[in-house]
């Protein structure tokens, strides 16, 4: 896999990694991990939630390296915004109800309760229908005669065990390359792959991060190379 050369000291106004000079979208993800000392990740092998969360965290740690992509926090920001709005509404409503006579405060208190409910439900609906299984969203800018923007979205889920097949970690990747602030679509790709958790975790629940990273890198690079 050919490596790409990143311009020294280059950066973009929105905080994405420096513009990468290249004639194609391919990158060597594993090259970005060379010489990196990884912390030991150990979980309970019998807990599928812990297994999935460990893999999700490893995906985010790998792809968010500054040599690769700049993380987009839109989903997190929206959920946090809705959550904090609900907290402020609840606090304001409780404080108003405490300070004002019960009968006089009822209309405002009811409005606060309804608004809090709307914010809570909206947050849950956003997580379920919009964010869904998204693990990581990132982008980077490349230079190939013009500045291009590459955006990647990664989602995951656990595939339950079936007969002799162990539980599996399924990874789905979506990739879009565009120019002119997204007005010109240059390419896109999608791909899904899955592996048994037992291929990444040993009997004591320790994650073989090099094996896992190599698999994730292969899935992502294959999707980015699609025409």
UniProtKB/TrEMBL annotation:
Residues 1-22 are annotated as: Disordered. It comes from the Eukaryota. Pfam families: SPC25. The chain crosses the membrane at residues 78-96, 108-130. Keywords: Endoplasmic reticulum, Membrane, Transmembrane, Transmembrane helix. Its main location: endoplasmic reticulum. It is a multi-pass membrane protein. One of its GO terms (biological process) is signal peptide processing. InterPro entries: Spc2/SPCS2 (IPR009582). Belongs to the SPCS2 family. Component of the signal peptidase complex (SPC) which catalyzes the cleavage of N-terminal signal sequences from nascent proteins as they are translocated into the lumen of the endoplasmic reticulum. Enhances the enzymatic activity of SPC and facilitates the interactions between different components of the translocation site. This is Signal peptidase complex subunit 2. The lineage of its organism: Eukaryota, Fungi, Dikarya, Basidiomycota, Agaricomycotina.
